[in-house]
Design a protein that fits this description.
The chain is mainly α and 411 residues long. It is built from 17 helices and no strands. The chain has 2 domains: 345 residues, no CATH class; 40 residues. α7 runs antiparallel to α15. This is Chromate transporter.
Length: 411
Amino acid sequence: MRQETNSGSATGGNASRGSVGEVFQVALRLGLTSFGGPIAHLGYFHDEYVQRRRWLDEQDYADLVALCQFLPGPASSQVGIAIGIRRAGLLGGLAAWAGFTLPSAVALVVFAYILTGTHVQHPGWLHGMMLVAVAVVAQAVWSMATRFATGKAPGTIALVSAVLSLLWPSSVVQVAIIAAAGMVGWRWLAPSSATVAGDAGMFSVPIRRRTAAGSLACFFALLLALPVLRAITHNQTLAVIDSFYRAGALVFGGGHVVLPLLENQVVPPGWVTKDQFLAGYGAAQAVPGPLFTFAAYLGAVMRPYPHGVLGAAVALVAIFLPAFLLVVGVLPFWDALRRRPGCHAALAGVNAAVVGVLAAALYNPVFTTAVRTPADLCVAIVAYGWIAMWRLPVWGAVILSAFAGMMLSWI
């Protein structure tokens, strides 16, 4: 498939094309160290892709986050896929997804083989991983706030978004907040003040619009055709693909939001027992990367067929395929839309709202889940200094916090 490459570079960032191997290597490191859920993942991505490597600038990153908040599926994985596509084309997007996803998927498949049905405890080192997530998210919130929530109007949008997100913590409310903030920005923020990071036309996406339209058509065709084929053929593999594809295509908010939908798909038909489902959910909390890789565990323990490694691969690809098709389908049109002055203003409102939503998530669930004692807060503060003040690698903070969490569990 021939791809169209647009010229240009992101203001403040290195938009030159990279290799697929480079994208995979960076994404793999993130997949091995990104603990803490989707909000924390966005913090890790911000540190690696924006702060350290400068593959894109603050404005481009915030716009991608805002876009993926609107799309169904795993938002953090979609942001990673979009960055991979921008860096190295469609294969770069696949490499970004594979690198970020495979570590947790492999770990959960191994768990499915050796620990199915056991009760999963959270050891001290895992608690330390959650503490570093506090630092990562705090650093991302501060960096984005200084960029997108300055001034009375954007600051007010961010504050109101944070308050509403804290009072009504649901993915539906978050989507409504972001949509409302976009309308407020479009109506009341002047385009000149909304354009906070240069010319949006400098953002390039190496995908033809024809390819994007075909990707969107494929997304909707599979969504409509798979249930029909499942009913006609009564094929177990098609039934599995249909169940996991719909879970990935119809859930907003990602992460924990997909769990009840998956449970309804796999437990009532008898593919997975309730105990197996709960054990896998516990294991999914102990691995880095996206929670959607829980599908790999379910595919591995599933009965009657497919199961094992084949079942894990089928379930994993099926649940992530909608996310990839949507990102490929939307990015080129999004790039053109965001160049319009009115869209600049709307994006200014959306970006301010994202800051507020992330700030609310920093408190709940990130802070409330991880910080239980003053000692926990001390570990989080040191990790924040490691990342934000001393500009040391995030993986070093992960190791430090894991060791500190293990030590605290012995006290």
